[in-house]
UniProtKB/TrEMBL annotation:
<protein>
    <submittedName>
        <fullName>EFMT1 methyltransferase</fullName>
    </submittedName>
</protein>
<dbReference type="GO" id="GO:0016279">
    <property type="term" value="F:protein-lysine N-methyltransferase activity"/>
</dbReference>
<dbReference type="GO" id="GO:0003676">
    <property type="term" value="F:nucleic acid binding"/>
</dbReference>
<keyword id="KW-0808">Transferase</keyword>
<keyword id="KW-0963">Cytoplasm</keyword>
<dbReference type="GO" id="GO:0005737">
    <property type="term" value="C:cytoplasm"/>
</dbReference>
<dbReference type="InterPro" id="IPR029063">
    <property type="entry name" value="SAM-dependent_MTases_sf"/>
</dbReference>
<keyword id="KW-0489">Methyltransferase</keyword>
<dbReference type="GO" id="GO:0032259">
    <property type="term" value="P:methylation"/>
</dbReference>
<dbReference type="Pfam" id="PF10237">
    <property type="entry name" value="N6-adenineMlase"/>
</dbReference>
<dbReference type="InterPro" id="IPR041370">
    <property type="entry name" value="Mlase_EEF1AKMT1/ZCCHC4"/>
</dbReference>
<dbReference type="InterPro" id="IPR002052">
    <property type="entry name" value="DNA_methylase_N6_adenine_CS"/>
</dbReference>
<dbReference type="InterPro" id="IPR019369">
    <property type="entry name" value="Efm5/EEF1AKMT1"/>
</dbReference>
Length: 213
């Protein structure tokens, strides 16, 4: 009789050591986060998941977009970040009591942000909680996860439902025509940057007189 264990693939000792090292590093990183009074809102506190097509903005870009959103929303304004967690994190990091914000995002790791996190799947653009009232946000910042017309069109439904008027869209330069068609937004001069360089040229689009030109 053959030994049942024979057909279980064994990891080589080299792979095993590499794995252990990886887990150890991960634990140390997590440990550092807690011991240093880690800022849960800093960009990179949740690491990018490329399978979800996630690419975080550079610190400068996130700051610039957060400032623009605050200006556009005005005092006491409401800002919705749709699939744009690094802008949400920047807004929270800047603090200030005179605005409110929420994050609509597919990645449930961001649920650490409590009630301001709203699970969002662009395939169901209007499947939103009842307390998110139509046209209740002074500005909506959106960064659709995929460069496809379908993704933009569905995200646009969400944006139009949420915004009182102002829209700040971040997406590829190739989407310029579709962005105009679905949201009536025009490309700004400001060039958003990511913490890792993307292959596709990325741009910002607005439908109001912004500070991004």
């Amino acid at each position: 009789k053959m030994d049942d264990d024979d057909d279980v693939p064994q990891l080589s000792s080299h792979t095993l050591a590499a794995l252990q090292e990886f887990y150890l590093e991960q634990q140390q990183r997590e440990g550092m986060k807690t011991s240093q009074g880690f800022n849960q809102y800093s960009i990179g506190s949740v690491e990018e998941d490329w399978q979800l097509s996630q690419f975080w903005y550079s610190d400068e870009t996130a700051s610039c977009l957060a400032k623009e959103a605050l200006l556009a929303a005005g005092k006491g304004g409401r800002i919705a970040c749709v699939s744009a967690p690094s802008v949400y994190q920047k807004l929270k990091e800047q603090g200030g009591e005179d605005f409110s914000t929420c994050l609509l995002e597919y990645d449930r790791r961001f649920s650490v942000y409590g009630e301001e996190f709203i699970f969002y799947d662009y395939n169901h653009p209007l499947d939103l909680p009842e307390n998110l009232l139509p046209q209740s946000f002074d500005i909506v910042i959106a960064d659709p996860p995929y460069l496809s017309e379908e993704c933009l069109q569905k995200t646009a439904e969400t944006i139009k439902f949420l915004t009182k008027g102002k829209i700040l869209l971040c997406t590829g330069a190739v989407m310029e025509e579709q962005a105009a068609k679905h949201l009536g937004v025009k490309m700004c001069k400001f060039i958003p940057k990511h913490s890792r360089n993307l292959a596709n040229e990325f741009r910002c689009y607005v439908n109001y007189a912004s500070g991004l030109d």
